[in-house]
Design goal:
This protein has about 160 residues and is of the alpha+beta class. About 30% of the residues lie in helices and about 25% in strands. A 5-stranded antiparallel beta sheet has the order 1-3-4-5-2, with helices on one face.
């Protein structure tokens, strides 16, 4: 059996210390750089929250606001449908996976607010009393998204 020399042992220790340092830094960066516009922000939103509560969670104000009275009715659409093949998702694009939550009762929706962030897009629909009626989330393909697919314990 061959013994490790002092030089080899020192090199092994330095390599292990460097790898440990890099992994610790990566873990802290992944945990500390969470944006409120993410799946975690979406999961904290509940039906019947007020507009102020939503803005406290997601940051204020929303990137864009759309009055839903000006949106055409859902039944008015073009009947010419063409198939467009899906292109591969690139980093920064929305993945197409959409999560939705809504209230059980039907209310007249007044405004839709959209928050865009590096990890996704959250849209919140408020009624006339500024209560949340519907919320949706679309995730962006980011390096964190890819990393969490490979290592689910990071979520």
């Amino acid at each position: 059996m061959r013994f490790i020399t002092r030089k080899q042992f020192r090199r092994l220790c330095w390599t292990a210390a460097f790898v440990l340092f890099v992994l610790t830094g990566l873990s802290i960066y992944v945990i500390a750089t969470r944006d409120p516009i993410s799946i975690h922000g979406f999961q904290r939103l509940r039906p019947d929250m007020t507009r102020a509560e939503v803005e406290r969670l997601l940051g204020s104000p929303a990137g864009s606001v759309q009055a839903l009275a000006n949106v055409p009715d859902a039944l008015e659409f073009d009947t010419d449908i063409t198939y467009v093949p899906a292109r591969p998702v690139k980093l920064g694009d929305l993945t197409g996976e959409v999560l939705l939550k809504s209230t059980a009762d039907v209310r007249i929706e007044a405004e839709q607010h959209i928050w865009d962030g590096p990890e996704g897009r959250i849209w919140v629909v408020f009624d006339g009393q500024e209560r949340l009626t519907r919320v949706g989330f679309a995730e962006r393909a980011t390096w964190r998204h890819k990393l969490e697919e490979w290592l689910p314990w990071l979520r």
